[in-house]
Amino acid sequence: MTPATSDRISGSVSSVDISFVQEDWMPSTTTRKVEQSRRLQQRAESMIPGGVNSPVRAFRSVGGDPPFIVRGKGSHIWDADENEFIDYIGSWGPLILGHAEPGVLDAIVGAACNGTSFGASTPSEADLAELVLSAFPQMQKVRFVSSGTEATMSAIRLARAYTKRKYIVKFEGCYHGHADALLVKAGSGVATLGIAGSAGVPDEFIQFTLALPFNDIKAVEYAFTKFKHQIACVIVEPVVGNMGCVPAADDYLVALRLITEREKAELIFDEVMTGFRLAFGGAQELYSIRPDLTTMGKIIGGGLPVGAYGGPDEIMNLVAPLGPMYQAGTLSGNPLAMAAGCAMLKQLRDRKEEIYPRLEKLSGMLVEGVSAAAKDAGVTLCANRVGSMFTWFFTAGPVTNWETASKSNTEQFGRFFRAMLDSGVYLPPSQYEAAFLGAAHTEDDVARTIEVANGAMAAVKG
Q1: Is 127 considered catalytic here?
Q2: CA distances from 200 to 147, 177, 205 (A)
Q3: What is the distance between the alpha carbons of residues 266 and 314, in angstroms, rounded to a whole number?
Q4: What is the C-alpha to C-alpha distance for residues 146 and 328, in angstroms, rounded to an integer?
Q5: Of 175, 197, 416, 423, which sees the most CB atoms within 10 A?
Q6: Residues 6+ apart with CB under 8 A from 250
């Protein structure tokens, strides 16, 4: 498997304000029907902030009418107006086997027939734990929670309990959930909406968070020098997916491992996106690096709400009820999520020699094909890809951190996004979110997407 590819295409590029909002956009001429989705959006806005339960769904950075999705099958989804789309979001990564995968659905239905939640232990929790631990050799114990945010928040608390230190290091453009201490120069929706952090987070809550440039090992060395014996952990997305797909530079992750070992700080890999996607054992298998703690989510619940954090016995035994680090959750280990996760991970384990090489092949074809369409049209584009995670940045690149990612021409991206959507290709509605290809995508899907992209590049040029 090729860890990363990057492609730069020459041409002109203009700088735009990343805080662009929907009111600044002119609506696109659309061939898709939007009446039902528009009505549903208006109804939702009367009861839900912005009409959405996660900000990026509002399409504020790309404009146009967000589709309301009503069903999915394989690599395709359908909205309330019966428009059909090739889906490259896959619920933001976890649906690696595609929508409504029969084995996962059967597992969910079977579990639901016995009850949806008990607030007590069930056998399936250990079944899923066994599968997760088999894929991540550095983990001896794992604790399930209900979201990636809970997982990262708990892992950091655990690192502080283990080291008895206060400071944490994160990286600009990396998003680790919406816990107060982590909304410092975060990616994902924070970057999409041009928000520096978040209102409602007191300075006192973030005073021990050090946000450093990604892919800059000198900045990490300086932080450990300035805060000698005070840094509890370094948390990192080993392949960033929340400022778009941005791979780590050569030896960057190795350097982080060496520094944290030397300084007796914990290295946390946030594998909420990369776990079981880049390889069965995630990014740490792909790059042969073992962190101290790992956080996961999304995929280990087969698309149902779930998260997890894990590591060696020495650290995990500090978690209550064995130790003094408290974390709990009524829906942690929910039987439906456990059943779905078991069904998903068993397929990935049993078919890994087939699935991962195929994802690599099709993703390479797709990214290179769209990049070639941009080059033919004279559009500036930089493509980043690691396995089946990828982003087309509308900038000359290379994109290696938040500073370079933020130079992308978001107006051009918005035109590209809307043109692709109108022609039946559903991409992340933000320049700063990674796209995903799954095992259900076909060569026909890829060929059709490249064909649509050739036409969309004309819209980009305006």
Answers
A1: no
A2: 21, 15, 10
A3: 12
A4: 10
A5: 175
A6: none
How far is C-alpha 128 from the geometric centre of its chain's CA atoms? 21
Rounded-to-integer distance, Cα 306 and Cα 297, Å:
5
The pair of three-digit structure tokens given for residue 182, joined into one six-digit string? 């982590």
Sheet with strand 425-426: strands edge to edge: 69-73, 76-79, 84-87, 425-426
Return the residue matching tokens 């440039």. Answer: 213
How far, in Å, CA of 366 to CA of 445, rounded? Answer: 9
Catalytic residue list contains 164: no
Q: Which one of 65, 79, 81, 270 is the catalytic residue?
A: 270
Query: Is there a contact between 10 and 380 (Cβ–Cβ < 8 Å)?
Result: yes
Q: Could you say which of 88, 162, 167, 175 is catalytic?
A: 175
Q: How many helices (H) and strands (E) does the chain have?
A: 15, 17
Residues, the chain: 462
Active-site residue flag, 17: no
Catalytic residue among 7, 162, 287, 298: 298
Cα dist. 24→20, 60, 413 in Å?
7, 9, 14
Rg (CA), the chain: 21
CA atoms within 13 Å, Cβ hemisphere of 455 = 12
β-strand pairing of 167-171 with 209-212? parallel
Instruction: Find out whether 66 and 59 touch, Cβ atoms under 8 Å.
Output: yes
* Dihedral over Cα of 292, 298, 381, 174: its sign: negative
Nearest to 165 by CA among 309, 263, 292: 263
Residue with tokens 């300035």: 226
Distance of CA 390 to the CA centre of its chain: 11
CB contact at 8 A, 291 and 8: no
> Per-residue confidence of the chain (462 residues) as pLDDT tens digits?
444 444 433 332 222 232 333 333 333 445 799 999 999 999 999 999 999 988 888 888 898 999 999 999 999 999 999 999 999 999 999 999 999 999 999 999 999 999 999 999 999 999 999 999 999 999 999 999 999 999 999 999 999 999 999 999 999 989 887 776 776 655 444 333 333 466 767 677 788 999 999 999 999 999 999 999 999 999 999 999 999 999 999 999 999 999 999 999 999 999 999 999 999 999 999 999 999 999 999 899 999 999 999 999 999 999 999 999 999 999 999 999 999 999 999 999 999 999 999 999 999 999 999 999 999 999 999 999 999 999 999 999 999 999 999 999 999 999 999 999 999 999 999 999 999 999 999 999 999 999 999 999 988 986
The token pair that represents 339 in the structure block: 């059943």
